[in-house]
Amino acid sequence: MAQRGVTPRNRTPLAELPVVPGATVPETSPTGDRTPATPQRVVLGPRLIDSPSGNIPDSILTPTLSPEEMAVRQRGRRRRPVIWSPDTNDRAFFSSSMQTPPRATATMTLRSSPRQRSLMQDFANVASTSGSVSPLKRMQTAQESTGNSPGNSSKKSKLDEMAMGRQNGALPLSTVLTGYSKEQLINIIGSIVANNDQLEDSIRRDLPLPDISPLDIELARIKNNIYTSVPNAKLIRRTDGHGYLRAAIHLETFKRTIHSQAQNLYASHHWDALFDYVLMAWTHVRETPVYDNTKHNAVRRYCFKLLVHHVTSALKYGASGLGTERVVRFQQRFPNMIKDCGDISECRKCLEYIMKRS
């Protein structure tokens, strides 16, 4: 029911206001922080319809950064711009006035070793030449540069060519020869008798029997190490597993020594010295400990079989050249040697053949 004294409305409550471009909202009274002189915003302009941020002030949409914020962003992690292309240089996007100062170059010159200077000279020579340089020329260049270095002067190389034994004539020749290796002595004697058959025959006639006493001393030393590796204690036996573990490394050394010594005499075809060596080494192998476990006696069995092989070769190739005295001594020890290793019974036929011919 309509109230009395009130004029009736001429439009519906939800009717839209007419959109007039450029129209402003009249201010009836100042409110808050606004005054009547404050300019009015355009109401229902195109920006309000096109974008939802039309009612937000421009100062909030595009805020200005403080100097402190600018410094923080420059020191922080740089971000790529929205528009970025991989074809352009990445450094162009990260241009900043705050750049790292260039590294100061040292004015002090470091000293290099003679080897470094020689290698640098070699690289310079190779770089200056063309790519078709032969390897022989490069080697010659390296040798020349090495010879000119302070550590390798030409004067020192001339002194090295002349051995001290040549300069000191008062020094006995036997003393000088002790400093040479086995290969050097072989080469020296070979070069002397190369074109002189008479000298070679005289040397052959004067050749002595190879001395096996140093080999005997070496085997005795290693055998003593086998026994000294296990201390004499009540709770430890030499022939048990613990005693074998203590002496295992010395047993392996003993096996390698016998193999190398016998192989050296075999390769040189000194059958008489090899025969004597087998009789000598057989005694040392027999004196090695016999362990409770049969697997631990593998080194002992290997040494016996190796000596059987070499004594068979000495009897086969040496034959009557061994001499009657050696064969008789071996025949006397033969029964005891069969008890140590049954494989030596194969030598019985060779012994019978040599005794018939003698």
Layout of SSEs?
Blueprint (H helix, E strand, L loop, with lengths): L45 H5 L7 H4 L5 H9 L14 H4 L20 H15 L6 H13 L6 H8 L2 H4 L5 H5 L4 H11 L4 H9 L7 H16 L12 H27 L3 H16 L11 H21 L5 H17 L7 H10 L1
Brief sketch in words of this structure:
The protein is mainly α and 358 residues long.
Describe this structure in words.
It is a single chain. By secondary structure, the chain is mainly alpha-helical. Among the domains are: 177-205, no CATH class; 208-357, Alpha Horseshoe (Serine Threonine Protein Phosphatase 5, Tetratricopeptide repeat). Helix content is 54%, strand content 0%. Helix 5 packs antiparallel against helix 6 (135-147) and helix 14 (271-286) packs antiparallel against helix 15. It starts with 45 loop residues before the first helix and ends with a helix. The model is unreliable at 34-49 and 153-159 (pLDDT under 50).
Give the key terms.
358 residues, mainly alpha, Serine Threonine Protein Phosphatase 5, Tetratricopeptide repeat, 17 helices, elongated, Cut8/Sts1_sf
The portion of residues assigned to helices is 40-55%
Report the span from N to C terminus: 164 Å
Poorly predicted regions are: 34-49, 153-159
Would you count the extended β strands for me?
A: 0
